[in-house]
Write a structure and sequence with these properties.
The complex is a heterodimer of chains A (about 350) and B (about 425). Chain A has eight helices and twelve strands. Chain A is an alpha+beta fold and about 350 residues long. Chain A folds into two domains: about 210 residues, no CATH class; about 110 residues, no CATH class. In chain A, strands 3-4-5-6-7-8 form a six-stranded antiparallel sheet, covered by helices on one side. A two-stranded antiparallel sheet of chain A has the order 1-2. Chain A has a two-stranded antiparallel sheet with strand order 9-10. Chain A is globular, with a radius of gyration of 21 Å. Chain B is elongated, with a radius of gyration of 23 Å. In chain B, the strands form four sheets. In chain B, strands 1-2-5-8-11-14-17-20-23-26-29-32 form a twelve-stranded parallel sheet, with helices on one face. In chain B, strands 3-6-9-12-15-18-21-24-27-30-33 form an eleven-stranded parallel sheet, with no helix packed on it. Chain B has five helices and 36 strands. In chain B, strand 35 and strand 36 form a beta hairpin. Chain B has about 425 residues and is mainly beta. Chain B has one domain: Pectate Lyase C-like. The two termini of chain B are about 40 Å apart. Classes of the chains: A alpha+beta (about 350), B mainly beta (about 425). At the A-B interface, helix 3 of A face helix 2, strand 4, strand 7 and strand 13 of B.
Chain lengths: ~350, ~425
Amino acid sequence: MTRRSKALAAALALLAGPVGAEVNDTALAAARPPANLSEIGLFDDMAAMTPNSSVVPYTISAPLFTDYALKYRFVYVPASAGPAAYQGEDVLDLPVGSVLVKTFAYPDGAGGIHRVETRLLIHQEAGWKAWPYVWNEAQDEAELKVAGKDLALTATRPDGSTVDVAYHVPNVNQCKGCHVGTDGALRPIGPKVRNLNLAEEGGNQLDRLLAAGIIAELPADRGSIPATPTFTDEAVPLEARGRAYLDANCGHCHAPGRPADTSGLYLNWEEDREIHRGIMKPPVAAGRGSGGFAYDIVPGDPDHSILLYRLDSTDPGIMMPEIGRSTIDQAGVALIRAYIQLLGG
Amino acid sequence: MNRHIAAVAAILWAQSAIAGNEFHIFPGDAAEEQLQEALILAEPGDTIILADGVYDIRNGLSLDNPDVTIVGAGMDRSILSFKNQSGGAEGLLITAGGAILKDFAVEDTKGDAIKIKGVDGIAIVRVRTEWTNGPDENNGSYGLYPVQTKNVYIDGSVAIGASDAGIYIGQSENIIVRNSRGEFNVAGLEIENSYYADVYANELTNNTGGILIFDLPNLPQQGGHTIRVFDNKSYANNTDNFAPQGNIVGLVPRGTGMLIMANRDVEVFGNDMRNNDTVNVAIMSYVEKFKDENYDPTPKRIHIHDNVFGASGGNPDTSEFAEIVTGALGTPLPNIIWDGVMPLPNFFLWGIEEGGRHSVHDNVYEANSPFGNANLIMYIVARWLHNPSLSMKDASETYPSLGPVSVVIRGVDVNDQTF
C-alpha cells in the first residue's frame, strides 16, 4: 500500500464508524483519552471482552503479583505503523500509536470472571501515557478514573482459600512509580522478548506475534532468543526461580537508574554484584521497614533478612513492593524463603 | 491588527501563561480524589490551593508534572492527615522538577511524609511534617526527604517525630536548608551522600542528634563534601534513640549536637550548641563493615571555628557507641571529639594524610575540654597501649572558608525570588 492510500484507508476507517469496527487511532492520539473504554474500539464486544481483530492477546512468563488478580493482556499496533523490530534486550520498541492493554479480573464465583479495571499504556508522539479504566457493575463498560480508585474485593488464592483485598486502581503517577525508564519517562515493563518467549498451544508465542504483525522478525536460530525462567516451574533451579521472581516483582524499581536505586539494592536479573543483590547489605533508608534486622539478605537465614520481612508484610510503611498489592503472595514468600535458605549453602 | 497591539496581546498571553491555572481543593469526602486529580492534571505554572482544614487522605499522593505549586493556608491550617492511610509508601511523592510547596502540613504518614526523588528544583517553604504521637519507632523514617535531587531549598519549615531524620537530604547537590526546626526526631537534620550544602539558622532540639552529616557506601552517589553548617542552634537533643534497629541512624548517641561521618570539606561555624547530654560535636569514620572499593570511610578537612559551645556531656548515653567513646576519653567528653580512626597503614606509619587533617580554632568553650582524639583503634585492638589525646595538634590545619551555595528554582536563584 502506498503512503497516500494508507492515509486514505485510515481516513475512510474513521468515517466508517460505528465504534468497534476499527480501533479508534484518533482517540488514542488525543491528549486526554475518552471517558469510556468502549469509545476506543479495542474490544468488539465489551461485555465479552472480545478483542478487535487487530488487538492481539499475549502473556508473559514472569508476572508481577497483584493480589491474585487474573490478568488479560493485549497489544495493538496500528497497521500503518508496522511491527516492532526484534530486540533481544529490553522492552519491544513498539511504534507510536501502539497500545498495551491489561485487564485485571477475579473469578466471579459462577465460573466466569468479574473485571475490575483495564489499564492502557498508549504510545503517543510525546511518549507513553498510562490511563486506568474501572469497569461498571454490568461489566459492559469501563470508565476513565484519572485519580485511580479504591475498591473492596475478595480474591481466591490458588489453594482455593479466599482473602479480602483492599484493591487500589493506580493513577498515572503510581503507574509511573514502576513504569519509568532511566530517562524519567513512562515506559512499558513486561513485553520484553525474554518474557514473551513462551511455549503455548500450537507453538511459541513469539511466532504468533510475528504472524500477527506485532514483531517484525525473529532470529532464524530460535534457541538464541533469551528467555526468563518461569518462577513457578519447579523444574527450574531454585536460585534462578528466586532471582526471576525478584526480577519480576522488584527489578523494575530496584535497578540502577530506576526509582529505588537510592537504596543501592538492585534486584534486576542482570545484576551480578552480591552486595547490590542484597547479600549482607545494610539498609539505607528502610526505617521501620528493617524489622530490626541488619541486612537485606542474610544467606541461610531468611528470618533475619529484611527482604523477606518486607515481602511478608501488608503494612504500607513496611511492605514491598510499595503498591500493587494489599495481600501477601504466600507462594512468593515461600519461594524467597527457600532462595535465601539456599544462598546459605 | 497593528504591530503594537499584537505585541501587547503577546505580553498578556505570556503573563496569563505564567500565572497558570488554579485548582481549589477543600476538605471533604471528595478531597482526596480531587487533589490527586489536580496533581495529575496540573501543568507547568499551575497552582493547587489547599483551603483551610484537615484532609483525610487514604492513599499516597504524587506529583509528576514540572513547575507546579502546592500552597495551603498555613502549616497549622491546611493539614493533610494520613492517620487512616491504607496505601502508598509515603504521603506526598514528587518526581518532577520545579515544585514549590508552601504553607501546609503532612501528618502521620505510614512511611515518609514528603519525598522528592530524582528531580532538578524543589522549594519547601513553611511546610510542616509531623507524627503527632511523638517519638515512636513506628513513625515513618523521614519528614522532608529530597533524594537524588539538584537544587534543594528548604526554608522556614518544621519536622517533628521522624523515626530517622526530620529533614533529610540524600544523594543530592546544591542545597540550602535554613530557618527551619527539627524536634523530637532521631536526627533533626541530616545531609547524607551530598555535595554543596548550606545549612544555616536552623534550630534543632529534643532530637537524639541535632545535625548529622553522613556518607554511606554502596550508593549511586557517595563521597559527601563541601558542606557549610553555620549559625544554627543545636541544644538539648536528649531524646532516647527510637530508630528501628538495623538503621544506621540507630548508632547516634542520645545527646549529640552534631555528628559528622565520612565526609570531607565540612565547615562548621557560628553555631551555638549546648545541653547535649553526650557531646556537642563528634567527627567519625564510617563504623560498619563495608565492601565498596570506591568508598572512603574517613572524614577529611573538617573545619570547626567561631562556634559557642555550652556545657554538654553531663549525662552521656550508654549505647555501645557512646560507651566506647566515653570509655576512651572519659566524661564529660570534650566539646569536639574525633574518633582518630583512619586506614591502618596511615595510623601506624604517617598519620592522617597530608591535606586531610582537621581544623578546630577560635571557638568559645563554656565548659569541658575543647577537643579530644579518642584514638579508638588502639582502644579497641590494644587497650593497654591506648592513649587518647586532648591536644589540639590533631586539628590544627589552616583552611580557607568555603563559598556560598547557590540554589536555582525554575531558573531563578532562590535569593532573587519570594516564596
